[in-house]
Amino acid sequence: MATPRVFISSTCYDLKHIRENLKYFVKTIGYEPVMSDNGDVYYDPNIHTHDSCLKEVETCQLFILIIGGRYGGTFKDNDTSITNNEYKHAVKNDIPIFTLVEDPVYSDHNVYTTNKKTNPKIVEQINYPSIDNKKIFHFIDEVRKNTQNNAIYAFKDFSDMEIYLKKQWAGMMYDFLIDRHQKKTSTITNNLLNNLSVATKKSEELMKVLLKSTTPDEADKTIEDISNKVEAENFIKLIFDKFKIANLENISLESLLKIKLPQEWYEFLESTTCFHTTQEEHDNEIDEVIWALQGGSGLSIGEYVEGELIYITNKKMKKAYESLKKLEKETQEEILTKLIEGI
């Protein structure tokens, strides 16, 4: 089973005990920690080790940034730190970032920021005991000024970090579950709107023709014809939706219109030569599945029970196809043309 990979980025030496605790914490929740000082990064012999670290960032789903008081080594082709460049690469790849700053560093950063606004000349003269390089403050500013994913949390010890990360990752899971629920609700809503659209179209066509009808018998026949036509058009839409295709390829309109409509909808699709059926094994059971040649989705049409193929009734497809068969030939051809042209 795939597990999320968590890249842990920081200066290695002054935060080594924190990194070790984080590695253990990440493992205990079932995720995979990735740390450059732990042999987790593949150092490609054809590129610089710094570039190898950046490539490893791309393979991760979460990124923990720890900013301490030591700036660390600079990147191979600029004057910013390796950690800073790993962070930039995580931003570039839209990876969720969780930034943690040592509390003394964060306090000194506030002093630096306040004086920079009110007395900019003095900021360079102040001694900041928690850091070895003012570029650390610039790094914190870079994170804070990002337009998204710019939260910063100050920690005193590892327990602060553990509590914070647990809450944040629980929040991510909550968002995932809510989003999943909303997508499901959205699908139901879209189906209702589609059904409403079909009903509206029926009503519009019905009103147009009934106004011209002169007898009850004509009205009944008109209602039936309109209902069948709209339902038959839904057959085309169902084909496109179920098989994830936009139209039928590799068949001419002339060949399509020559097909005599067989008993079942899947027999008609096979007759177009744009579909084929296969036997698929799923959960130790064998199903008969029909596939569009140019699509990526299949639809089960039957299952084997004690060696005998039992066909499954797809009610929506069957109902729409039966309506198509009831139409006059000219109307059938008008609707089938949409299989080639697309709706």
Task: Describe what this molecule looks like in 3D.
The chain is of the alpha/beta class and 343 residues long. It has 2 domains: 5-156, Rossmann fold; 213-341, no CATH class. Helices cover 52% and strands 15% of the residues. It contains 11 helices and 9 strands. The strands form 2 sheets. The protein has a 5-stranded parallel beta sheet with strand order 2-1-3-4-5, sandwiched between helices. A hairpin with a 2-residue loop joins strand 8 (298-305) and strand 9. It is elongated, with a radius of gyration of 32 Å. The chain starts with a strand and ends with a helix.
What is the CATH topology assignment of the largest domain?
Rossmann fold
> In the residues, how many domains can be counted?
2
Level-1 CATH class name of the largest domain? Alpha Beta
State the distance separating the first and last CA atoms: 41 Å
The helix/strand class is: alpha/beta
Percent range for β-strand residues: 15-25%
User: What would the principal axes of the Cα set say about the shape?
Assistant: elongated
Mean pLDDT: 83
Percentage of residues in helical conformation: 40-55%
> Care to count the β-strands?
9
User: Sheet with the most strands?
Assistant: 5 strands, parallel
Q: How much is the radius of gyration in Å?
A: 32 Å
CATH architecture of the largest domain: 3-Layer(aba) Sandwich
Low-confidence segments, given as residue ranges, are none
**Strand/helix succession:** EHEHEHEHHEHHHHEEEEHH
Number of H- or I-type helical stretches: 11
